Amino acid sequence: MSKRETYEAKTEEILLPIAEENGVEIYDVEYVKEGSDWYLRAYIDKPDGVNIGDCEAVSRALSDKLDEADFIEDAYILEVSSPGLGRTLKKDKHLEKSLGEEVEIRLYKPVDKCREFTGVLKSYNADSITIDTAEKEMTFARKEIALIRLALDF
End-to-end CA distance of the chain, in Å? Predict the structure, then answer.
């Protein structure tokens, strides 16, 4: 397990009781470097959406617990937020909740001279994701997908 994966897993472990206490669920935790800064991001959600008060309460409690545990060597910036409307679907639990929803898929390499596809998420498994586009049903190997997220429809 990489340092990043270890930090994310330990943070999620610490965050779980805090999230339950505040009536939210953990959507994702990521530890990333952007420029010269490290960011520890916790994304929280609940059925009717999270508000600034939810994020603030979880952030304060998580910050205190992370200070106590002190397992991250680097200096980092802690952010707690909603995953947003165009949320990235990284885990199977995200895909499960999004079945029947419109998604955008971006590929590493073009298929039929196109790298981006939009359609309704029909199914997924460990190896592939299937969407129903306006023209036809399409299946993509998961290893070929650079990004999958909920489509924003305005």
Answer: 40
pLDDT tens-digit map of 33-66: 999 999 999 999 998 889 999 999 999 999 999 9
Contact call for residues 120 and 142 (beta carbons, < 8 A)? no
Tokens matching residue 130: 């299937």
37: buried, middle or exposed (CB in 10 Å: 19+, 13-18, 0-12)?
Answer: exposed
DSSP code of residue 114: E
Asked if residues 62 and 15 have their Cβ atoms less than 8 Å apart, the reply is: yes
DSSP strand pairing (128-132 vs 114-124): antiparallel
pLDDT in tens, 12-31: 999 999 999 999 999 999 99
Report field, pTM of the whole predicted structure over 0.85: no
